[in-house]
């Protein structure tokens, strides 16, 4: 009878250790929120694989405490993430500003992959001023005698931009509607008008980008905010992520099929962290969990042998 009771005690104790390990793992649920320099990286973004929304996978990278965004047209420094207004502010080091005009095809422009288009696009009040484009540029084709695509965006355009000190040395050609002598050195467009700022395909030597933070209005190009203001969005209902975070989990996705997952410490759920484990909840025990349980059981077995139980 004593041996039976001892065996029962050992089994119960080992099961208890296992359960406690699971509880501890749930309580220390893996958090996907992270930081890069002075920027918080939170859902839908992430710098870890499997975290955040799958539409933003392989997008942000933290390099020496500098947050970088990488898309098909190049890499950009992330200056700010505004979660309240769902927008990012990006910087292209080779982009022209009011004080510096950069030619030589060195700028990245802005082109997103086709599958990212539903998630990421420059805001409607972001003006792109294309510089040094040739007469053969697609911007000027199909509109005999007129450069119709060139226009002001949110009150910002080339006529004002020509007043920047960066143009003092270059001396731009301020041509009007008709450009028989050649296209102007600056053509302002919205992203929606051409869907991609590809300097090579547009036959342009450089570009500048500025945005307006309405209702704030500034006087002239000296006060414009230079950079690329990008609007982001998450398609569909976000109730899954809210339920996941409300139960202590972190929103993520399956790296194989990109389906949504709620990360709950050492296990992942397809609903939330309060749900009961089932076939749909993949339980992943860590090596530390297994070793802890094994060491505990061996210690109890040795103790029982020493006591002669």
Search tags:
about 300 residues; 6-stranded antiparallel beta sheet; 4-stranded antiparallel beta sheet; 5 helices; 16 strands; about 20% helix; elongated; disordered N terminus; Wall-associated receptor kinase galacturonan-binding domain-containing protein; polysaccharide binding; WAK_GUB; signal
Give me a quick take on this structure.
Residues 32-91 form the Wall-associated receptor kinase galacturonan-binding domain. The protein contains 5 helices and 16 strands.
Give the percentage of residues in beta strands: 15-25%
How would you spell out the order of helices and strands?
HEEEEEEEEHEHEEEHEEEEH
- Summarize the biggest pleated sheet: 6 strands, antiparallel
- Alpha-carbon distance between the termini? 10 Å
User: Helical percent range?
Assistant: 10-25%
Q: Treating each run of at least 4 consecutive H or I residues as one helix, how many helices?
A: 5
Low-confidence stretches: 1-30, 278-292
Average pLDDT over all residues: 79
Structural class comes to: alpha+beta
Question: What is the alpha-carbon Rg in Å?
Answer: 29 Å
Placed side by side, the strands forming the largest sheet appear as 3-4-5-6-12-7
GO molecular function: polysaccharide binding
Pfam families: GUB_WAK_bind
InterPro entries: WAK_GUB
Domain Wall-associated receptor kinase galacturonan-binding: 32-91
């Amino acid at each position: 009878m004593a041996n039976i009771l001892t065996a029962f005690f050992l089994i119960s104790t080992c099961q208890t250790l296992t359960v406690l390990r699971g509880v501890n793992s749930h309580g220390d649920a893996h958090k996907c929120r992270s930081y890069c320099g002075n920027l918080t990286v939170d859902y839908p973004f992430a710098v870890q694989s499997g975290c955040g929304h799958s539409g933003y996978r392989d997008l942000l990278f933290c390099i020496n405490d500098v947050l970088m965004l990488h898309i098909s047209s190049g890499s950009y420094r992330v200056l700010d993430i505004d979660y309240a207004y769902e927008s990012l502010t990006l910087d292209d080091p080779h982009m022209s500003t009011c004080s510096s005009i950069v030619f030589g095809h060195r700028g990245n422009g802005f082109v997103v992959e086709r599958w990212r288009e539903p998630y990421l696009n420059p805001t409607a009040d972001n003006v792109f001023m294309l510089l040094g484009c040739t007469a053969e540029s697609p911007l000027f084709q199909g509109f005999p005698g007129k450069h119709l695509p060139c226009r002001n965006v949110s009150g910002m355009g080339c006529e004002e931009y020509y007043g920047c000190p960066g143009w003092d040395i270059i001396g731009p050609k301020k041509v009007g509607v008709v450009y028989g002598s050649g296209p102007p050195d600056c053509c302002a467009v919205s992203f929606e008008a051409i869907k991609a700022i590809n300097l090579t395909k547009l036959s342009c030597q450089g570009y500048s980008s500025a945005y307006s933070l309405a209702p704030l209005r500034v006087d002239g190009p000296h006060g414009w905010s230079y950079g690329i203001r990008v609007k982001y969005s998450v398609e569909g209902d976000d109730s899954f992520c809210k339920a996941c975070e409300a139960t202590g989990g972190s929103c993520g996705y399956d790296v194989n099929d990109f389906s949504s997952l709620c990360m709950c410490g050492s296990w992942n759920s397809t609903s939330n962290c309060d749900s009961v484990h089932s076939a749909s909840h993949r339980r992943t025990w860590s090596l530390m969990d297994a070793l802890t349980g094994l060491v505990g059981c061996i210690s109890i077995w040795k103790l029982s042998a020493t006591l002669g139980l």
